[in-house]
Structure formats: C-alpha cells, structure tokens
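Figure 3 (text version): structure tokens given as input.
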C-alpha cells in the first residue's frame, strides 16, 4: 500500500490554516489536495473541528470516489472536489468556504466584477456565478451536481486564469496547484469580494477595470512572461498557473 503521509500533511496544514484566514465559521470549509500520479486526493473529514485535525485524519479518496485510506468519513463536499479535480487537469487542490462577502455575491446570483488591480492580480476577469441547481439535482447526487454546474460554467473558459467560482445560493470554490496556493486564492477572493461590495455601495454603476490594466496586472504575475516576485517563483505566480495556454478545462 502506498504511503499517503506527505499528501495528508499538506492537506491537514491547509485545513488547519483556514480559521486564521477568517474564511470559515464553525466547520464550514474544507481543502482537498491530489496526488495525480497515485490517482488519489486527501480531504478533510466531515464535521471535525479544525483545531483537532491531525494528518492521519485526512481521508484518502481515489478518483473513482472510493475511500482507500482513513478511518473517518470524508467531507460531504467530496464529490464536488472530485468533479473539479477530474475536469480541471491543471489543478491539484480545491478549497471550499462560506466566506461572507463571496457568499453575498453567490446568494445574489451576481458575478464578482473585476473593478481594480487587486482583483486583476489573481483573477483574469470577473469571478463567475453558476446557475441554480434544479430540484432533481438537489434530490439526487447533489454534491456531484454542484461540481457539474461549476464545470459547465467554465465550458470554453479558462479555469486557471479565473481560479475560483461562486456557486449560486451556496458559496465559493477556489483551486490551485498546491493546497497553500488554493487557500491563498480563496482568501484573495474574499478580499476582492469585500472591496467590490464597498465599491458598489458607493457607486452601483462602477465600471470594470479596463482590459489593458487587467492584462498587465494578471500576466505580470502569471504565465511564461510573468516578472513579479523572485525568479524561482515567477513561473507559477500566486495561483500556480505555470502554463495558462495549455492547461485548461478537460471535457
């Protein structure tokens, strides 16, 4: 049996970091991180307080949805994480929270607009909101259907250039190439959502950031021409999108 210890340690560290970011209340959040070579991912166990988490508590699930290691039940959101990891081949980690400002946009059914450079640094355009799930989807395989709605929203899009989504009536999901970067992306999402709420309160018709400013700020941090930060980190940038042109959504 392969050792999953390093995967469990990465996953546990990211989940334990969530409360300090202010992104979660109670146990409303989870992180998963995959080992694509082994065809598995680690995820937080359901309902366990963050302070009590240990690496060995992280549940290992294969890409077919079978628990292969761990004594606890995995997060109820596991099928959604699995759906995204299967569809978005360029990512390794997924974060789900109920962070308050991002949830406000999700509940309103409004894309999070790109109004300024803080947003541009992380997301190459608005963060989209999904359609509402049907009654049949909610009665059926609800969490898998949530992931499908996300994948549908990115059809023809670029999930590494906009590494987050708002699920209608629910909340945000974010992703990256490492668990730590996925948590950072989720935090950046909440920060820009708060900024947008304040901006729109002051000026409801505030215009989006112009395309030339969006491109400048995003691509100076992400992709092969990035120059922000130190040389060893430049290739990946904050969201870990080393090659934005070749790693996009898989069918």
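Below: residues designed for each position.
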């Amino acid at each position: 049996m392969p050792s999953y210890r390093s995967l469990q340690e990465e996953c546990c560290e990211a989940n334990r970091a969530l409360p300090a970011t202010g992104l979660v209340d109670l146990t409303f959040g989870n992180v998963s991180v995959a080992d694509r070579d082994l065809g598995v991912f680690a995820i937080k166990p359901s309902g366990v307080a963050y302070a009590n988490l240990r690496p060995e508590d992280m549940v290992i699930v294969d890409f077919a949805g079978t628990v292969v290691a761990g004594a606890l039940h995995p997060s109820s959101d596991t099928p959604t994480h699995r759906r995204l990891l299967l569809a978005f081949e360029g990512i390794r980690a997924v974060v789900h929270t109920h962070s308050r400002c991002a949830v406000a946009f999700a509940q309103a059914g409004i894309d999070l607009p790109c109004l300024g450079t803080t947003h541009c640094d992380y997301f190459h355009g608005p963060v989209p909101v999904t359609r509402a799930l049907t009654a049949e989807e909610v009665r059926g395989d609800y969490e898998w259907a949530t992931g499908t709605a996300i994948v549908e929203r990115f059809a023809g899009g670029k999930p590494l250039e906009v590494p987050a989504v708002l699920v209608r009536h629910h909340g945000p999901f974010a992703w990256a190439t490492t668990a730590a970067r996925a948590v950072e992306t989720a935090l950046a999402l909440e920060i820009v959502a708060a900024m947008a709420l304040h901006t729109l309160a002051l000026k409801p018709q505030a215009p989006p950031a112009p395309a030339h400013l969006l491109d400048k700020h995003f691509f100076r941090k992400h992709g092969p021409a990035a120059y922000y930060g130190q040389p060893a980190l430049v290739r990946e940038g904050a969201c870990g999108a080393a090659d934005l042109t070749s790693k996009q959504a898989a069918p």
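Residues 132 and 205 are 25 Å apart (CA to CA).
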